[in-house]
From TrEMBL:
Highest taxon of the lineage: Bacteria
Positions that bind substrate: N29, N89, G99, N100, N187, N224, E242, R243, G252, T253
UniProt pathway annotation: Amino-acid biosynthesis; L-lysine biosynthesis via DAP pathway; DL-2,6-diaminopimelate from LL-2,6-diaminopimelate: step 1/1
Species, as recorded: Liquorilactobacillus ghanensis DSM 18630
Subcellular location: Cytoplasm
Protein name per UniProt: Diaminopimelate epimerase
Subunit structure: Homodimer.
EC number assigned by the record: 5.1.1.7
């Protein structure tokens, strides 16, 4: 039996001060799911921010930290979604969406509600999620709708003189020799198609850390930055430096935005076709769609791995003291690693 089915995060009866968390990942982009139903009083925004900063720290956090916390609550009354997800980055900032995270939340809500296709409420939209065929034994897969898409500078909170949008353009004031595209899905992404040496080089980190310093004139609220290498027709590799986190194994919304730019710039006839998107933590599949009103949306299809069930005294968690935490592995991580080993060598760098 899948142990996860008997793990009842929402009971909240472990004793007043105990918090339950679920460690999860999509393509190695890892999170702690926190179901706020377990509390009589949900954590305040300040507590959520502190919790994320404490447990996600890669050196001092819980079991090696994470890229963020995914807070799950019932959806608000305007929404018919099965649940609501909020995304708190490792630095405590809040993001409007998380493509890898939403698949894990979808799986969590699916198990709790015995449904395989439904909507999840996010900051700007209720997004469709759906269970898909496993990638491999014990590698569970969900698809998520990535939407709404915008190229408008105002939605990206992007400020380059005279530019209302940015599609494959040089930005000599930022980084000569690269062509950038900017797309909000709806969190902001800056994307450059590069060769292999540029993909593995240090320029991505230099550009992204500057654009996320909170002081630069171009993206004062920060931006997720990705370098993309075309590996073959309909096959790309995406490396991302995330706002609020730094380098990650993968960023689901970045892979979706990169897929959209790949289709628009290189293969406009490949709308509605499946793309393979490799990343340092594994591989996902994407499909770029266009609606009748000409707006775009992307299907992001990938693993939703449950790594471990965690309990920890709430006060200790907020103070960053993890000595009393329990950590119970689900056994899925070994299956995921096995799946990744089976991918062709050029798919993981
Ligand atoms: N890892 C996520 C994106 C998380 C939010 C991002 N860091 C931001 O601030 O926009 C994904 O898989 O999409």
């Amino acid at each position: 039996m899948n142990r996860i089915l008997v793990f009842k995060l929402d009971e909240g009866k472990l004793g007043g001060n105990t918090m339950k968390l679920l460690k999860v990942h999509g393509s190695g982009n890892d999170f702690f799911i926190l179901d706020q139903k377990q509390f009589k009083q949900p954590l305040t925004d300040n507590q959520l921010q502190t919790l994320a900063q404490r447990i996600c720290d890669r050196k001092t956090g819980l079991h090696g930290g994470a890229d963020g916390v995914l807070s799950v609550t019932p959806s608000t009354k305007e929404s018919a979604a099965l649940g609501r997800m909020r995304v708190i980055n490792a630095d405590g900032s809040e993001a409007s969406m998380c493509g890898n995270g939403i698949r894990t939340v979808a799986r969590y809500l699916s198990l709790k509600n015995q449904q395989t296709a439904f909507k999840v409420q996010t900051m700007y939209a209720d997004l469709l999620v759906k269970q898909e065929a496993d990638f491999a034994p014990k590698v569970k897969v969900f698809a998520a709708e990535i939407s709404p898409v915008s190229f408008a500078a105002k939605d990206l909170k992007m400020h380059f003189a005279g530019k209302e949008q940015l599609i494959n353009q040089e930005l000599p004031e930022l980084a000569p020799g690269f062509k950038f595209s900017a797309v909000a899905v709806p969190n902001p992404h800056l994307i450059a198609f590069v060769d292999h040496q540029q993909l593995i080089g240090s320029k991505l980190g230099e550009i992204a850390s500057y654009l996320n310093d909170g002081k630069n004139p171009y993206f004062p609220d920060g931006v997720n930055v990705s370098f993309v290498e075309i590996l073959a027709k309909n096959k790309i590799f995406v490396r991302t430096y995330e706002r609020g986190v730094g380098y990650t194994n993968a960023c689901g919304t970045a892979m979706s935005a990169s897929s959209l730019m790949y289709v628009l710039l290189y293969q406009p006839q490949e709308l509605e076709q499946q793309l393979e998107v490799c990343n340092p933590g594994g591989m996902v599949k994407t499909i770029v769609h266009q609606r009748q009103d000409s707006s775009y949306w992307i299907s992001l299809i990938g693993n939703a791995t449950f790594v471990a069930e965690v309990t920890i005294p709430q006060d200790a968690a907020l103070q960053g003291d993890f000595q009393a935490a329990t950590w119970q592995e689900t056994g899925e991580q070994a299956a995921y690693e096995n799946f990744v080993r089976g991918l062709k060598k050029d798919e993981i760098r």
